[in-house]
Amino acid sequence: MEQRGGTTHHLDIGVGTGYYLAKAPANYNISLMDLNKASLKTASARIGKARIRYEVQHNVFESYPEELHGKFDSISMYYLLHCLPGAMVDKGVVIKNVKAALTKDGILYGATILGDGVKHNSFSSKLMRIYNHKGIFSNMSDSEEGLKKILSEHFEYTEISVKGTVAMFLASMAK
């Protein structure tokens, strides 16, 4: 990860509890984005308020506030896309919005659970059906190809690695 002036400006979207970010190097300047205020509060408390640059309650389907444009060397989205409503193509606007917040040399990375083109065991198949029915997940048709398409629309370089039912991805060189 490229660092400028000894600091990496990082945005985590869909923050969860902040467990992994709390272990980030001290020179990371961390920002958080989530629709859920309780998640932001929990993650911020775990990481430490002094390390948080921006704490943004925001819908990722909407354009980011102007003050976030071009600010981040890296943006992570772990286990977010499969929770967002709609087909993978509908989630392309989320990638477009992320791109606006990256610096010229910034990178996007994360992971998502795929529903199509991967083999789920009987337990995960049942859980997926329940979660999709309840609206917790929206990923029955999410595929590696669909993910590649929405990333490639906005980035010159994309890399996807599927392990089991999870796609780990990286994108850089914004178009």
From TrEMBL:
Q: Which Pfam families does this chain map to?
A: Methyltransf_12
The UniProt record lists the Methyltransferase type domain at: 11-108
The domain of life is: Bacteria
Q: Name one GO molecular function term.
A: methyltransferase activity
Protein name, entry field: Methyltransferase type 12 domain-containing protein
Q: What is the lineage of its organism?
A: Bacteria, Pseudomonadati, Pseudomonadota, Gammaproteobacteria, Enterobacterales
